[in-house]
Amino acid sequence: MDEIKRAFVTKFLKEFKKIATKGRGIDFIPRVKNRDALLKLGLTKKNAEQEILSLSVADYCSGPEPDKDKPGEIWEFGKMLKEREVYIKLKIAQAEEEQIAKCISFHPPEFPLRFPLRERIKKGGETK
Fold first, then answer.
1. DSSP conformation letters of 90-122
2. pTM of the entire predicted model
C-alpha cells in the first residue's frame, strides 16, 4: 500500500512543480498566518516557493482530501525550516483552461504533523 501511495504523491508533486515552474509560479493565498510565518522565518515569497519546489515524498503528511470551499483536492506536507516545522497545504486549481499551483497554507502547524511515507530508521531495535 505504501508503494501505491508513494507513487500517487510523486505524481502530484511532479504535476504541481511542472505547473508552478512553467508560468506564473505559485499562487500564495494572502492569509495573515502565512504572511506572519514568512516574516518570522525571514523568508520572501520566492524563498517559500523554492522550499515548496524542493518538497519530496518524505515531506508528505496527508491527502488528497476534497477542498471544502472550492472544487479540487488538498494535499498536506511538512518541512523543517530554520529549526522550525512548517505546515504546507497545496492544491492544483483549475481556472477555465489554466491549471494553477496554489499554496493555501505556509505556517507553523497547529497540530502535530505525521509523515507516513518517511523511511523508518531502526537503531538498537527501536523505530525512530
1. EEEEEETTEEEEEEEEEE--SS----TTSPPPE
2. 0.87
